[in-house]
Design brief:
The complex is a heterodimer of chains A (216) and B (217). Chain A is an alpha/beta fold and 216 residues long. Chain A has a single domain, classed as Glutaconate Coenzyme A-transferase (3-Layer(aba) Sandwich). Chain A contains seven helices and eleven strands. In chain A, the strands form two sheets. In chain A, strands 1, 2, 3, 4, 8, 9, 10 and 11 form an eight-stranded mixed sheet that branches. A three-stranded antiparallel sheet of chain A has the order 5-7-6. In chain A, α5 crosses α7. Chain A is globular, with a radius of gyration of 17 Å. The mean pLDDT of chain A is 98. Chain B is α/β, with parallel strands linked by helices and 217 residues long. Chain B is built from four helices and 16 strands. Chain B is globular. The chains are: A alpha/beta (216), B alpha/beta (217). Chains A and B meet through α4, α5 and α7 of A and β4, α2 and α3 of B.
């Protein structure tokens, strides 16, 4: 059984300058309570690994708006003009990564793999910044594993041992990130007694979840 | 009605009983011209095989969105998936056709559609994966951008992939990039080859008859 902790207690574990994976896709499946708690606790100089940065002052965009982030690794920032502006100004470092590459780099870290070889990005700026390898006469782009100090996960249902399920398109990066963070903190829509979730429905085993946020 | 021509013509390119990914923006509208009995499943790369129309107001579910973040629906037989499976479907070649917009396409059939350095930096999202890995890549776009050429000898913007796209469909023409260059295959009703050439900076090869687009549903 997990001991429920508050979002405030959870973010007290996270120091300034930490690298943090945050689940979600344009705010869908994003742990909003944890994001607000990070802001309230005054955390800053964070490195954020996330698919996008939401919209201005919404979702992960809250952290951007409040100037808490010094480095973003994401696949798409087109919906957040503030992220784009900070990138163009040079006030925040932004690394843009193809979405499939980002997902697989995170999975590689969590699965103990040495990285991935992909065709995505060959012949583009992505390959110029990376490493092209030739195997059996065929070219591939090597992408190293990507891990983080923390992973902040949003689940649909959690049970009291931390088993997690996800709903519809709110899975996105959450299951992969739950294996790639050194410390994994999950926020769920609902927490149910152990045994309420059928084993086949569990997508993230509670044993990899370090902290489960108490209900709001 | 130029948009309507692009959407109708593009819809005719989709093959029955395949997985199709439509980009955000103009390409999304192609779904409106696809018959349900076609057996086509639309992928939403944020995590759905079997994307349906936009959600009806009042029946939105905050956990069911499309790749643009809009409230979506799922069709019967749909499956929700995580990003790894979603991009495994793309990278593994299980997506038969992807339809994307373009900023530039050139004589080599190369597409640029993800960044205008120093000005617009939306990022590539899933576009590089889709263009590099889908079986067929269709660029569906306006022929020019407010008078500026989009079909050019060589892309000046950073490429999305080094792969030659399958087809370019605009409100004026259907163009097939080949090893020999860009072949003008079809023209829109009432549009002449000369008009298409005037709107195209790249060399267009006319190889036999340039048929009028079939826009039947």
């Amino acid at each position: 059984m997990k001991n429920p902790i508050t979002a405030e207690e959870a973010v007290a574990l996270i120091p300034d300058g930490a690298s943090i994976m945050i689940g979600g896709f344009l705010g869908c499946g994003t742990p909003l309570r944890l994001i607000e708690a990070l802001i309230a606790a005054g955390r800053k100089k964070l490195t954020i690994i996330t698919n996008d940065t939401g919209r201005p002052n919404e979702g992960v965009g809250r952290l951007i708006h409040e100037d808490r982030v010094s480095h973003v690794i994401a696949s798409h920032i087109g919906t957040n003009s503030e992220t784009q502006q900070k990138m163009l100004d040079g006030t925040m470092r932004v690394d843009l990564v193809p979405q499939g590459t980002l997902a697989e780099q995170i999975r590689a870290a969590g699965y103990g793999l040495g990285g991935v070889l992909t065709k995505t990005g060959l012949g583009t700026l992505v390959a110029e910044a990376g490493e092209v390898v030739t195997l059996g006469g065929e070219q591939w782009l090597y992408e190293p594993p990507l891990k983080a100090d923390f992973a902040l996960i949003y689940a649909d249902v959690a049970d009291q041992v931390g088993n997690l399920t996800y709903r519809f398109t709110a899975h996105n990066f959450n299951p992969a990130m739950a294996l790639a963070g050194a410390t994994v903190i999950a926020e769920a829509r609902e927490i149910v007694p152990v045994g309420s979730i059928a084993p086949d429905a569990v997508k993230t085993p509670g044993i990899v979840v370090h902290h489960l946020i108490a209900k709001a | 009605m130029s948009k309507d021509i692009i959407l109708r013509r593009t819809a005719r390119e989709l093959r029955p009983n395949t997985l199709v990914n439509l980009g955000i923006g103009l390409p999304t509208g192609v779904a409106n011209y696809v018959r349900p009995e076609s057996g086509i499943f639309f992928q939403s790369e944020n995590g759905l095989v079997g994307l349906g129309p936009r959600a009806v107001a009042g029946f939105e579910n905050r956990a069911l969105t499309d790749a643009g973040g809009g409230f979506a629906t799922a069709v019967p037989g749909a499956m929700s998936i995580d990003s790894n499976l979603s991009f495994g479907l793309i990278r593994g070649g299980h997506v038969d056709t992807t339809v994307l917009g373009g900023l530039q396409v050139d004589e080599a059939g190369h597409l640029a559609n993800w960044i205008v350095p120093g000005k617009m930096v939306p990022g590539m999202g899933g576009a590089m994966d889709l263009v590099a890995c889908a079986n067929r890549v269709i660029v569906a776009m306006q022929h020019t951008a407010r008078g500026a050429f989009k079909i050019v000898p060589k892309c000046t913007l950073p490429l999305t992939a080094d792969r030659r796209v399958t087809l370019i469909i605009t409100e004026m023409a259907v163009i097939e990039p080949t090893e020999a260059g860009l072949i003008l295959r079809e023209r829109a009703p009432g549009v002449s080859i000369e008009q298409i050439r005037e709107a195209t900076e790249a060399v267009l090869i006319v190889d036999g008859e340039v048929a009028e687009m079939n826009l039947a549903a």
